[in-house]
Design a protein that fits this description.
414 residues, alpha/beta, 6-stranded parallel beta sheet, 6-stranded mixed beta sheet, 14 helices, disordered N terminus
Length: 414
Amino acid sequence: MITKPDSDEMGARQFLIDCWGAGVASVKGENAVRQALTRHGPERVERLLAVGKAASSMCLGATGFMAPDAQCLMITKYGHTDPQLLEDQRFQVIESAHPIPDQNSIKAGTTAIDFVQSILPDQAFLVLVSGGASSLLEVLVEGLGLEYLESLTSAMLANGLDIHQINAVRTRISRIKGGKLMALGKSKSSHVLLVSDVQHDDPAVIGSGIGSTCPSRSSSPRIPAVIEEILADAGITTEEKYPCPSLSSFSSRVIASNTVARNACEQFATDKGLQVVMNEETLHGDMEDVVQRISELVLTGPGGVYVFGGEPTVVLPEKPGRGGRMQHLALSVAKSIRGQAGISLIAAGTDGTDGPTDAAGGIVDGTTYRTESVADTALVEADAGSYLDQVGGLFVSGPTGTNVMDLVIVLKNR
């Protein structure tokens, strides 16, 4: 029988939730957009395209700057639309799937093309982009269909490709990614605001370059042979080059990032009188390597708060169970700290969604990994969510209105 944590653990648990929440609040789309438009303009928005899991929150930040007759297209994940926007006649809303695209993703992509092409040169055009955009809308190159897109996306996720690799592949098969959508625009006043969910905050990588004017200029990431074979079977070998649009007035600005969120977590802990031992964006890379590094740092380091950000990758079994990368990380670290008193951890996606589940991540301590055989099986079968649910270790926040990768916060009381 697996038991849930007792009340003595609740103080540390609440601190972790509040600290994580402070980080997320600092990068909420609504506030970030409102501040950016107030400081940098435009003062009047006539056409608005918003895409991503944080699109609804970002749109709320823009409504006060929109013309009465503005036209807006918002594309977001199912269940992520604020009711206020559904009542606003200026908004056309399309919800689609993440992380595996669906038919609505294709509908959203074709609608986005029509929308951008309809904008007149003298109309002020605002584009809002956050993480998740790559899956939420797509228009494929000729000869490819939804079934191929679903299969390719599943293969990339199962093989542990990171976001840079996934977006590079998506750009090769897309008619709208990598600057191609913006190339269709004619507005003489185009502005892009981005909530970054990628390392280095490259606008050409965020959302696979939906709001960029050019493909990424960074070196192309290496794509595993198994994915290259899937592309080659469909006749996709090299990416078609699209010219960068010659927009007479174009601005692009990253308005929220993992760095901002981590610094807010640090400030929250400091305000509580706690020492912050570490604040780093070091969650990138293979899951096992990330877990080993976090575990070693926490077990050997001094007492205090440790803040990590980023997005690790994990290779999934053929039939994964319930969970996501943050639930997997939380349970893996729980194995390393089992039996250790005074150490607790929260690992959660800042968008409130961890993998194809309704949980944001997990909260664990030295008592979580208490039924070893069951927990080990959960890790092998990528079923960490089921185990954490049984022991009271799941963390559910709901949609947060932002998406700046993952946050891991550790509290060590000794």
